[in-house]
Design brief:
Blueprint: H1 4-28, H2 36-41, E1 78-80, E2 88-90
Antiparallel strand pairs: 1-2
The chain binds iron/sulfur cluster.
Residues 43, 64, 67, 69-70, 81, 83, 89, 93-95, 97-98 line the site of iron/sulfur cluster (SF4).
Length: 102
Amino acid sequence: MTSRRQFIQIVPAAGAALLVARTVSAQSDMVTEKDPEAVRLGYVSDANKADKAKFKNWAAGEHCANCGLFQGKPTDAAGPCPLYPGKKVSAKGWCSAYVKKA
Ligand code: SF4
């Protein structure tokens, strides 16, 4: 049987474990620059760090939040992109498949 003292010790630990699990889950939902498709398309989480020598179509001001393929809201920090199924891209990111939002 769990004593009141043990219960009081367990609850904060369980809360902390849940917080860590949520943080890890949110991070694993993000595309990383090392994902094979991200490498192929030159995805970077900061558009200003794109490989401009390799991807000549990069232009200042382009980033995921103003790309026609970005499926988040313009104010979202991250959102889905159909090129990376099941993952989110940074609103400040960029890849060579960028298309200006109509
Ligand atoms: S296609 Fe558009 S929204 Fe998707 S990663 Fe590339 S720049 Fe970002």
